[in-house]
TrEMBL record:
<feature type="transmembrane region" description="Helical">
    <location>
        <begin position="110"/>
        <end position="131"/>
    </location>
</feature>
<keyword id="KW-0739">Sodium transport</keyword>
<feature type="transmembrane region" description="Helical">
    <location>
        <begin position="412"/>
        <end position="433"/>
    </location>
</feature>
<dbReference type="InterPro" id="IPR018247">
    <property type="entry name" value="EF_Hand_1_Ca_BS"/>
</dbReference>
<keyword id="KW-0769">Symport</keyword>
<dbReference type="GO" id="GO:0005886">
    <property type="term" value="C:plasma membrane"/>
</dbReference>
<feature type="transmembrane region" description="Helical">
    <location>
        <begin position="38"/>
        <end position="57"/>
    </location>
</feature>
<dbReference type="Pfam" id="PF00474">
    <property type="entry name" value="SSF"/>
</dbReference>
<dbReference type="InterPro" id="IPR001734">
    <property type="entry name" value="Na/solute_symporter"/>
</dbReference>
<dbReference type="InterPro" id="IPR050277">
    <property type="entry name" value="Sodium:Solute_Symporter"/>
</dbReference>
<dbReference type="GO" id="GO:0006814">
    <property type="term" value="P:sodium ion transport"/>
</dbReference>
<dbReference type="InterPro" id="IPR019899">
    <property type="entry name" value="Na/solute_symporter_VC_2705"/>
</dbReference>
<dbReference type="GO" id="GO:0015293">
    <property type="term" value="F:symporter activity"/>
</dbReference>
<feature type="transmembrane region" description="Helical">
    <location>
        <begin position="194"/>
        <end position="213"/>
    </location>
</feature>
<feature type="transmembrane region" description="Helical">
    <location>
        <begin position="606"/>
        <end position="623"/>
    </location>
</feature>
<feature type="transmembrane region" description="Helical">
    <location>
        <begin position="574"/>
        <end position="599"/>
    </location>
</feature>
<feature type="transmembrane region" description="Helical">
    <location>
        <begin position="78"/>
        <end position="104"/>
    </location>
</feature>
Amino acid sequence: MKPQRTYFQRLRYYYSLFTIGFGGFLAALAALEQEGMPRVWIGYLFMFATIVLYALIGVISRTSNVLEYYVAGRRVPAMFNGMATAADWISAASFISLAGGLYLHGFDGLAYIMGWTGGYCLVQLLIAPYLRKFSQYTIPDFLAERYGGADSDNGGRAVRILAVIATIIVSFTYVVAQIYAVGLIASRFTGVDFSVGIFLGLASILVCSFLGGMRAITWTQVAQYIIILVAFLIPAMWLSAKHSDNPIPQVAYGKLLPKLSAREHVLQADPKEAEVRAIFRQRAADYADRLATLPASWEVGRIDAQRKLDNVKARNASLLEIRSAERELIAYPKNAEEAERLWTEAREQNLQRAEPIVPHATPYPGNPDTSNIKRNNFLALVFCLMLGTAALPHILMRSYTTPSVHETRVSVFWTLFFILLIYLTIPALAVLVKYDIYSALVGSDYAHLPNWVSYWANVDKLNPLFSITDVNHDGVVQLAEITIDADVLVLATPEIAGLPYVISGLVAAGGLAAALSTADGLLLAISNALSHDVYYKLVDRGASTQKRVTISKLLLLAVAFIAAYAASTKPGDILSLVGAAFSLAGSTLFPALVLGVFWKRANRHGAVAGMVTGFLVCAWYMLHTNPILGGGGAQWFHIAPISAGIFGVPAGLLTIVAVSLLTPAPGRQTGALVDYIRAPEQ
């Protein structure tokens, strides 16, 4: 026990020094800002310093040892593994988007917090300790051994391949969202192009995971968690003290909710708000009329746009007017099919902005039918997030890194503790920012808008993350005239709160740490599955340990660049991409994992059929019902596409049970394996 205790004390000493040094770095930048340092330089320093720090840890932790590269030598103490897992878990979706989702959707956004937190309880109870007892490297490894029978190499081949495919699809969907967030942060705080920002962040990801695998990622993630925690708590505590004279946001926001509700009632009764929403309803009706008369309406609109340009040129209008007319003609749909797509999106956006204010604290608002649909979707999303959490390969991999089964159980406790420090603050931050915007920005004069409005309006001009438009031309900001993207709220919070710009840089560094920490774990999960489960187990069993690690590094490099390219296309908002990954993970892997531990009768035939069925049902429902993905089919029981796992998980479970009962039972070796992993630790 003494060497382990010494190792723990050494780690505690190093990270205490890191925390003190990081505090000194913040103080130095704050002093430089007071002396007049340009904001752009502060952004550069934060980005550069944190990326260099992570790269330095990666270089120090470099290794070619298989045990160190895959599972950090199985010697990470429980508390530090909990911090690393929390950083792995608090992704861009949690840090950047979740508070924004709560801001926009109120009570409904709590589904993410409840689902993800509950999922960790399932990890503790159902899966993590048993994986640690199994003592291998990857999730496909466990499934292949459990369902392989007497000849696990050949018998488990189909299960292994399916598990690898599921790991790649789930992790790739998830990692694209993280790299998208990296580009968003880098473009905002350094001024570089979005695509360039993606590849800058990618360099940091690769230095950590490429050189040292799980060992480098673990010690980087501990440092990243410290930055995440500090970055999230400081703005929340500042706003809490500003609006309630209490610096503890988890306590203060309960007192602020009645004030927010009162402000919502005032805005709901404001005739100017009603006027703006009526304008949006009229715009939606105009788009509906155009859609009803296609393709003639498209042709008429194109002629009108061309005529407008000809007229401004003929009367020698100003260059500004001519350029505006030219842009209008260029932006006009190229054909009737494109017009149908764009006008449908515009109609939906205007209808959404015409909706009345949704009370923040009211669960499932609306008429009884609407309330029931919202409640069912809330519960379905919680279900999918819980079971998806319990099946995410990059999270379950961390159960292999602790010294013992007991340490794994303790590690899950620490993980929940470190996650809750952030998750209990997220609802508070959403309320605090919402109250600030509703009371300070709404009702203000357009001629005196705060500087942060123009900053964020210009981050992405093609797809604005924040905008305010004087729709009714009264010179006063109405709530309905504000559009804010969920992905921007937390990053903009320091400026909304009036904090020094150095705190904006800190929050950006926290968001970057959240995205990079999760991306590291996801990329390693993919590359390890390909190198260990495909190359080593199925292609070349005689490969040396050095060759296996080299193959994993090369595959990680290839996957990282493919994911970066996918993220540069901006495939969707962060929260939606992450939600899809959870439904797919739950539908494909959760039934096989849980029944593999707790039901000896589950066999290879059942596992293969269940994994395929769960995945196909989930993927088909997503594609069939999501208009963004080209689908437009009717939803089952009005369940949103993001919660497709509500159908995929039961389909997978029932299929495994039915097929297993209809086919021969597993052999004694499989029963002995189940008895071993379920036996109490000695």
